[in-house]
Amino acid sequence: MYLARNFDSGVLPTRQDGNAILGPTYDFLKDCLKQYYFANQAEISAAPRLRAYLAQRSTVDKFRRLIVQRNSAIREYDVYWKAMGKTFIESLPELPS
Fold it and tell me: Residue 63: what pLDDT?
């Protein structure tokens, strides 16, 4: 649905809609992607083909490392998509087994 509506953020599920996983996960990954862009802006701008740059294994590995780092670093961030004093992963609800 999100893809079909051209990535319209208005159709994303949020915590207020009762979805405590997808909405916050989207916001966390969007925050990580912004930080990745700011840290690697010159490299991204210099890439002749953006899609090829994003598909490189080294790019994916750098982005994964950034996600793990950001999960720990944002413990004290006051944002609506995670609980204060917790990492993003810690703030997610337990899934029933």
Answer: 95
